[in-house]
């Protein structure tokens, strides 16, 4: 009887330990912490050494990118010109 009770207690402890704590669940979704949306075109602009100029057109985001050589282009156009979709 004692062995059975000990085995049950050990099994219960292991089952509880396997559940994990409050920080054990992985994050899902594409939004980073804080709920801020990251624009891939703006990231690409910065990655090429450009400066992002925030802009909204028709209620939608339409950032510009000032490239290191001084040109100003739409960030999305820059991204699409250098990446095959």
Automatic annotation (TrEMBL):
Signal sequence annotation: 1-24
PROSITE patterns with a match to the protein in the record: PROKAR_LIPOPROTEIN
One Pfam family hit: DUF333
Organism: Paracoccus jeotgali
Protein name as catalogued: DUF333 domain-containing protein
Lineage, uppermost ranks: Bacteria, Pseudomonadati, Pseudomonadota, Alphaproteobacteria, Rhodobacterales
Keywords on record: Signal
UniProt keyword Signal present: yes
């Amino acid at each position: 009887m004692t062995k059975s009770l000990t085995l049950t207690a050990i099994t219960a402890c292991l089952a509880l330990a396997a559940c994990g704590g409050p920080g054990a669940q992985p994050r899902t979704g594409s939004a980073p912490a804080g709920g801020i949306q990251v624009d891939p075109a703006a990231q690409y602009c910065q990655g090429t050494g450009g400066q992002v100029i925030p802009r909204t057109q028709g209620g939608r985001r339409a950032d510009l990118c000032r490239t290191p050589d001084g040109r100003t282009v739409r960030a999305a156009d820059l991204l699409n010109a250098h990446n095959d979709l």
